[in-house]
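# step 3/5: fold
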Amino acid sequence: MKKWMTIPALAGVLVIGGVAMAGNTGHGLAATPKGLLTIEEAEAIAVKSVDGKVTQIELDREKSGDIYEVEVKSDGVEYDLDIDAKTGNVLRTDSDDEFDDDDSDDKVIVSDGKFITKEAAVKIAMKQAKGTATEVELDEDDGRVVYEIEIKDGKYEYDFDIDAISGEVLKFEKDRDDE
């Protein structure tokens, strides 16, 4: 009889302990913590540093601190920048000539004024998922130009594909955030 009573009690302790530990793991992304730049501010710094169009931006939580990884395309060259999310300092800038790559699909992604803005695409996604947009990328998927957006709220990670012309939500996925 004692074994039967001990097992449920032990299971309850493990569940409560697991919930308490889950609340203390890593940095939650429920909102941009005070003192960190917003995606828009990081984007402005990247564009000022490398004149071009931001195609992807992601907030990364690293041991050394929070960093925005930003891709900017300018005159056929793709630049990768790391920007300190607290200070706004550009930590790294690398470039690749996109015409040297075998991936010619990137040439499809040339804005001719028909695309919705990145901000509009994020707003559309935020109607379905509250949190912080941690990644926004303009990409081509099956001949269609889409914004791939990742939103995190500390508990879940939401992935969207938003049609860059119509603003239609083409894909929506919700997964547990494992960070």
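# step 4/5: annotate
The chain has three helices and eight strands.
# step 5/5: archive (pending)
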